[in-house]
Design brief:
With 87 residues, the chain is of the alpha/beta class. It folds into 2 domains: 53 residues, no CATH class; 29 residues. 29% of the residues lie in helices and 18% in strands. The protein is built from 2 helices and 3 strands; from the N terminus they run βαββα. A 3-stranded parallel sheet has the order 1-2-3, covered by helices on one side. β1, α1 and β2 form a beta-alpha-beta unit.
């Protein structure tokens, strides 16, 4: 019986401070698949993995929202938009 070779996946790991929670998972994924990390951190490249660094286009503006919780949300939205448009 002919065995099909395992399929190599293309994996994108996005974390501001890579490797973060991917510290143990990333090397394993990179050993078996095409893995790329997208980060703001100046982390050295992980073996077998390309690391793409980005910077936020701009920060948040104080006083835009009356709710204190909105500033982190605005920051996350800005980072998400930058990630999409720069990748």
């Amino acid at each position: 019986m002919h065995k099909t070779p395992p399929r190599r996946l293309r994996i994108l790991l996005v974390h501001q401070n890579f490797p973060g929670q991917f510290r143990h998972l990333a090397p394993t994924l990179a050993a078996n698949h095409e893995a790329v990390a997208f980060t703001m951190n100046d982390t050295p490249s992980t073996a077998n993995m390309r690391v793409v660094r980005y910077q936020a286009a701009r920060g948040t503006t104080a006083g835009v929202h009356p709710y204190p919780c909105a500033s982190p949300l605005t920051h996350s939205i800005c980072l998400g938009r930058h990630t999409v448009f720069k990748s």
